[in-house]
Amino acid sequence: MSKLYIVGIGPGNIENMTGRALQVLGDSEVIAGYTVYVDLVRAYFPDKEFFTTAMRQEVDRVEKALELAAGGKTVAMVCSGDGGVYGMSGLAEELSGKYPGVTVETVPGISAMLSGAAILGAPLMHDFAVISLSDLLTPWEKIETRLRLASQADFVICIYNPSSHKRKDYLQRACDIVLESQSPETVCGIARNIGRDGESISIMRLSELREAETDMFCTVFIGNSQTQVINGKMVTPRGYHVGAEA
After folding, report:
1. What is the pTM of this model?
2. Superfamily designation of domain 2-107
3. Closest-CA residue to 5 (of 114, 98, 96)
4. Are 220 and 214 in contact (CB under 8 A)?
5. What's the mean pLDDT in 54-58?
6. Whose C-alpha in 3, 198, 225, 239 is 20 to 30 A from the C-alpha of 21?
7. How far apart are CA 152 and CA 140, in angstroms?
8. Distance (Å, rounded) from C-alpha 185 to C-alpha 188?
9. Looking at domain 112-235, which of 3.30.70.100, 3.30.950.10, 3.40.50.2300, 3.40.50.2000 is its CATH number?
10. Chain centroid, CA 73 distance in Å
11. Alpha-carbon gap, residue 218 to 161, rounded angstroms
12. 47: Cβ–Cβ under 8 A, 6 or more apart, which residues?
């Protein structure tokens, strides 16, 4: 049976790709994906056939990959982070019904929420929510509701797509919503260019995050009421130490 793999490549450097991802990319005849993500792996697999499309051409990209697989080629579609987290896995499964001879398999990768958390410290040690601020596919009103309820429930909030050229004030608006129920002193962090040139982190208060500049290569972490700065790292205690003392 023909195969389309959806391969999570993590941040995109070979050190942070899983062994399974490298194996699948090596075994595939065609590597497909968004141009920026394909370019991250192109040098490692120079003998492959490549198929790329620009942003916002997701349906065309996945349909072409399915067509290539239906034609007998083993295809790997690369996604930054994990293909099942804001990636192409869902769309590939949705469209696969039109190609009954093709099997879709997701090869997981390290998502930005995990790689970003790792360089910031340990902000996701307790319950957390992941919310994208992109309103291309989700109405802003629904994003607002999710932010408001997550902050009221005292979740750590990991934010994808915090801002763009057309959404310059979206992170500010998100912070204003969180500030309705969280302290301005809440510990927050920004992870930039994770695993790539220019990687950096910033740790700040929620009131400062509201004024911070971000872009699509940033992942933002808003702590909960227990999140602290410990030895320069952003940490949300799980409560093990308290439990031991009790």
Report:
1. 0.93
2. Tetrapyrrole methylase, N-terminal domain (3.40.1010.10)
3. 96
4. yes
5. 85
6. 198
7. 18
8. 9
9. 3.30.950.10
10. 28
11. 7
12. none
